[in-house]
């Protein structure tokens, strides 16, 4: 079996996920995991499948014919066990340019891998300005203390709130 990671993007419409899942199924693939979203009218997704080696080329051809979707398929050559120290991080602050850049730069400097990231901006009732929130699922090396990460992130700006929690399961926000 081959492990493939497939990314797709295109104009959102009903039936896209069905077309993807049918194409995987028709090529004897097993859908292992995925993350899919609609953002600004676009559908974007990433999925991981197991597929018989002889079905890889026909799957690539079939995926390239899916109407209106840009598809990229890569072989997953780095199948590993889940990281030992998985942490959920929520960053909240007044919306401004550069928050994601500052936080991800600092995480990179600490050798922390970002497993998942979701962001949102929403209005804050009675405050008059937008609030930015980012939810991270992080792979923190064993030699890096969570308290050190929190301290480093809090030093970025006075208006950022940094909250860590233990993941309850493999699903992040």
UniProtKB/TrEMBL annotation:
<dbReference type="InterPro" id="IPR002912">
    <property type="entry name" value="ACT_dom"/>
</dbReference>
<protein>
    <recommendedName>
        <fullName>Glycine cleavage system transcriptional repressor</fullName>
    </recommendedName>
</protein>
<dbReference type="InterPro" id="IPR045865">
    <property type="entry name" value="ACT-like_dom_sf"/>
</dbReference>
<feature type="domain" description="ACT">
    <location>
        <begin position="5"/>
        <end position="82"/>
    </location>
</feature>
<dbReference type="InterPro" id="IPR050990">
    <property type="entry name" value="UPF0237/GcvR_regulator"/>
</dbReference>
<dbReference type="InterPro" id="IPR016867">
    <property type="entry name" value="GcvR"/>
</dbReference>
<dbReference type="GO" id="GO:0005737">
    <property type="term" value="C:cytoplasm"/>
</dbReference>
<dbReference type="Pfam" id="PF13740">
    <property type="entry name" value="ACT_6"/>
</dbReference>
<dbReference type="GO" id="GO:0006355">
    <property type="term" value="P:regulation of DNA-templated transcription"/>
</dbReference>
<keyword id="KW-0804">Transcription</keyword>
<keyword id="KW-0963">Cytoplasm</keyword>
<keyword id="KW-0678">Repressor</keyword>
<feature type="domain" description="ACT">
    <location>
        <begin position="88"/>
        <end position="167"/>
    </location>
</feature>
């Amino acid at each position: 079996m081959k492990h493939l990671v497939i990314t797709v993007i295109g104009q959102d419409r009903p039936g896209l996920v069905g077309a993807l899942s049918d194409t995987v199924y028709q090529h004897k693939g097993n859908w292992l995991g995925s993350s899919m979203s609609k953002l600004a009218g676009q559908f974007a997704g990433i999925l991981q499948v197991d597929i018989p080696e002889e079905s890889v080329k026909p799957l690539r051809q079939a995926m390239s014919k899916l109407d209106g979707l840009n598809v990229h398929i890569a072989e997953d050559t780095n199948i590993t066990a889940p990281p030992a120290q998985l942490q959920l991080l929520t960053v909240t602050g007044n919306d401004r340019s550069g928050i994601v850049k500052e936080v991800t730069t600092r995480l990179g400097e600490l050798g922390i891998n970002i497993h998942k990231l979701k962001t949102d901006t929403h209005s804050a009732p009675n405050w008059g300005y937008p609030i930015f929130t980012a939810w991270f699922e992080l792979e923190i090396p064993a030699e890096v203390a969570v308290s050190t990460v929190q301290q480093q992130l809090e030093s970025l700006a006075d208006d950022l709130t940094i909250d860590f929690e233990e993941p309850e399961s493999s699903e992040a926000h």
